[in-house]
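Recall the central idea of this unit: under ordinary conditions, the amino acid sequence of a chain determines the structure it adopts. In this exercise we apply that idea directly, starting from the sequence alone.
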Amino acid sequence: MFGQLTQFAHLLRIVRVLAHHNLDEYLATIAPLKPYLFLLHIFPRRKDDAPRGQRLREALQELGPVFVKLGQMMSTRPDLIPDDIAEELSLLQDQVPPFPGDQALLILEQAYEEPVSHHLVDFKLEPLASASVAQVHDARLNDGTEVIVKILRPGLEPVIESDIDLLFMLARMGEKYSADFRRLRAVEVIEEYSKTIHDELDLMREAANASQLRHNFSTSPLLYVPEVYFDHTRTNVMVMEKIHGTTVTKVDTLVENGIDLQQLSHSGVEIFYTQVFRDGFFHADMHPGNIFVLDDGRYAAVDFGIMGTISDIDKHFLAENFLAFFNHDYRRVAQAQIDAGWVPEGTRVDEFESAIRSVCEPIFAKPLCEISFGRVLVRLFRVARRFNMEIQPQLVLLEKTLLYVEGLGRQLDPQLNLWDTAKPYLEQWARQEYGPKAFIKEIRRQAPMWWKMGPRMPVLIHNVLEQASRGELQLTQPDENLKQLSDETRRGQKRLFHAIVGSALLISAALLAALDGYTPIMAGIAPLSSWLLGGLGALLLFVSWPSNRNK
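Accordingly, the structure predicted from this sequence is:
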């Protein structure tokens, strides 16, 4: 009962704030609330006629940290919300008053279960920065190393759980009674938000993210990631190397320090594409407050609570989309999204292609330096939504990060041509992934397994032959009720046998060549045994291929 009263009071506060900022039209879309809308008039109203985006931003700021973070996340979804609102929400600042330094010390003692002095010295009670989830303090390790200490706010989890439960209730109610809420996928948005904010509540997870990114760029001249000191890190406390750099937005200071802004902007784009296409693991919160420039011209990143991952399949199709788009090959763009499973398999390619062309072709009326990759993704996602595309969370994070990177790059160099920077990198990546070197690399990676399986291959082939001779080799059918004619079954068994033997011979030929250090380019001087095995294998595979005469 008490919990219900608390939730009602919280809901009433939300209604009051929305009414004050003249946002009650959003409440009017929820049918069950319409009979009670007259109650909104008892709340005081602002008298100005500010744009709706500004009013919504100010309302979220008044509602508190959880709603500020929700607004920040919504600003990264221009595929879901209008541009004017997305732009305004991007101005939300995640800043709240700090909690006392004495309380921070107490949290540290509880986390370490021993005196703080065993881990840290010269701990500064005054925080460097304070946000809704955590705040950061200066300190030193016992060996004198300068560090920053990130500490979660006390009592945060119950507040977040309460707010999220309330948001889920409103989202479900909205989707049930409002087409606008369904179009915005309100429940999906809250689910995504819930996962994001819960991830930020585990600093050990953030520390692991930082460590992985540091490893990925350990030899890079482009990006420096500070070291995490795991011996002093806990679930609610993270200790990390302190970096000394200039905020990337302080352009005048960078120029005074002799930093080449044009090179810096190109480096930012290269870092992004390296993270995405080389590693499949990227910093997804690269707003200016988290990016610094060191005296040697390298970028330095902080705050690793939100990271994105991209599968090899998604990497391939993203690269294909970008390259196809800038070659005006809209059919390839459409087909790539269908092949990736981003839109339903039965989608008509010609219709999808036409929709993409109608949205994207006008972009090419602009100079290439004015074309935004991020906006291209937004437009493609909006088109795809009309074809029942389900936006994957990792793609949303990618879109958000790309917009950050572009904005940063063009702030440093207004004439930055992202096409000139990105296309060579994407083409190089494609060559590395699908060229001869990649083939040989994969062969060598698989070689130990093939070497282990090699001695078993004759036995496996013999077993298949025995089963085929006795008529015991069976094919699995997708429909058990569908009966095959006996002659068709026999032909299928023969084809399967030829395919197995042919594949085994081809693998053996490639393995022999790879283990001797030969590449496809050196095929002319490969051992005769490799040629014989490979030729016989190819012949058997050809024989196994179904032909019209067998139908």
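The radius of gyration is 30 Å.
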